[in-house]
Amino acid sequence: MKRATRDRILILIGDFIIALFAFGLLYYYGKLPHWYQPVLSALVWVILGVVTLKLRFYSYKRIRSAIGIIFLQSAIAGVLIFWLHKLCIPNYKYHYSLVVALIIIALLESLFYLILRKFVYRKIPYFYEEPDLADVEEIGVNSSHYEKEEQLNKDVEKIIALIPQMPQKPEDIIDHIGAVKHLFSEDTLFLNTDNSDSIFSSKPVAPHLIVHLCSLNRVRHLNTLLAQTNLTLAEYGFIACHCLTSALHREKILRQSPPIINRILYGLDYLWHRVCSKLPLLRSFYFCVTGGKSRVFTRVEILGRLYRAGFDVIHEEVHNGRFYVVARKVKEPIRDDKPSNGMLIRLRRHGKGGKIIGVYKFRTMHAYSEYLQPYIYKQQGLATGGKIQDDYRVSKLGKFLRKCWLDEFPMFINFFKRDMKLVGVRPLSDHYFNLYDEDLKELRVKTKPGLLPPFYADIPTPKTLEEVQESERRYLNDYFKNPIRTDWSYFWKILRNIVLKGKRSG
Predict the structure, then answer these.
(1) How many angstroms separate the CA atoms of 425 and 414, rounded?
(2) Are 297 and 274 in contact (CB under 8 A)?
(3) What pLDDT, in 10s, does the model give residues 7-19?
(4) CA 216 – CA 294 distance, rounded (Å)
(5) Sign of the CA dihedral with 112 first, then 118, 123, and 127 last
(6) Phi, psi angles (nearest 5°) of residue 89
């Protein structure tokens, strides 16, 4: 079946289910006397949608046009269905519940269209994959050339030594630094601006240290500021900056107000600065009101933005309620990516036939965590199975999502798109796919990857790469002999281990 035909059938079925749900409410609450009347009403609704071309979702160029047409057709179809009820149902009288049903249909259809537009007609960009740990030494993180004893020049040592003396208020920090500027060399540049373009007009032309006196919270285009700082600096130059992190911001709010009230105020503040600033529908309104001058970042996000801008963090410190960072330029800024704060991410993975597919998942880490692997590897090292040990990039919500398997729930999008099946080997990134044995690579690409990996059926759970490969090899050999029986057997084994043994997502 061609994809275009499949999409039309999906839209027809979705529209019928939505209409059946709304008219079913009328039957449930006694406004339609017979069970077949909601079904016939839903069929009439779909037929009218086809005739009026409302269901040509793929042809709409603008969201407002699509939603406007949906509501207009809902009103027209509602009038026709009312007259059908009037003709076919004895003593039928108008009731406002019909209008409620029409509004429910229009809202659900609009949501249905937005989902299709997001995941079918306009895919979200691929999520930036963090570099392999084998590449960490290449960017200088583990190189002895960048050991702290060798890389700190006198001006950098001075700025780090000044941190414990810094006052709490940002304006006082500017005055404090201004009083000691004469202690630094001419190759150090002090900037008090949130305008990234002003960096290029500064002197000296290629400073070895740039100190940003303006809090990063007040910078609207922070990624641009950090990237242009990198381009302005001399080779292996340094950046020093400060901000108020989300954890410090929370402490400040809770400390300034009495109990209970402070929790309410923090909740409102969190919704405004952390939620509204990231949601697509509210983001523009947030920046229109604030100008991006009072955003709140997590510590992980600040560090991740620095690594994305080509820096390696050499010193971080919290003092007097503010977060200070000193980092060294080690490479060019990353430009071939599209950073996202959204909850939904799309990962580049190997599918059937070696085709690259976009696998959907909920984000479980703080924003910009994907750029931090070299730094956290330098700090934390690896745990069993090749994962980062004590990975603080995972948010509290992310830990909950992983524990309850909810982070993998969006992969059902891939299931309905027929990129994946229910039971099967996990879709792998290029890095991990290339670690597999050649014979297993050939077996893997002969079938679709699955939502439930076969090693979840094993007790004990495979931990090493060799054990995982052996588990997948057993499954694939059985699968190619009898696909249906193998997947059926593995499904119940996996379900048993999840329910009775407490097996959870990694």
Answers:
(1) 14
(2) no
(3) 777 788 888 888 8
(4) 9
(5) negative
(6) -110, 115
187: number of Cβ within 10 Å: 14
Contact 223, 305 (CB under 8 A): yes
Rounded Cα gap, residues 349 and 358, in angstroms: 6
**At residue 212, what are phi and psi to the nearest 5 degrees?**
-90, 110
Q: Residue 501 corresponds to which tokens in the numbers above?
A: 């043994």
Tokens 């991006």 belong to residue = 292
**CA-to-CA distance for 199 and 308, rounded, in angstroms?**
19
Of 354, 339, 362, 504, nearest in space to 427 by CA: 354
In angstroms, the CA 337 to CA 323 distance is 27
The pLDDT tens digits of the residues spanning 236-249 come to: 999 999 999 999 99
Delimit the CATH 3.40.50 region(s) of the chain: 134-329
> CA nearest 419: which of 472, 361, 479, 357?
357
Question: Rounded to whole angstroms, how far apart are CA atoms 376 and 316?
Answer: 13
CATH class of 134-329: alpha beta
How many Å apart are CA 468 and CA 387, to the nearest integer? 14
Q: Measure the CA–CA gap between 167 and 182, rounded to whole angstroms.
A: 19
Q: What is the pTM of this model?
A: 0.72
- What is the residue whose two structure tokens read 């941190």? 163
> How far is CA 206 from its chain centroid?
36
The mean pLDDT of 91-120, rounded to a whole number, is 79
What sign has the CA pseudo-torsion 333, 335, 341, 344?
A: negative
Residue whose structure tokens are 């002003």 = 198
357: Cα separation from own chain's centroid: 17
Sign of the four-CA dihedral 267, 273, 278, 279: positive
Given this model, what pLDDT does residue 130 score? 66
Nearest to 231 by CA among 188, 199, 195: 199
At position 259, the amino acid (one-letter code) is P
Residue 6: enclosing H or E segment and its boundaries? Answer: helix 3-28
Cis ω before 460 (30° cut-off from 0): yes
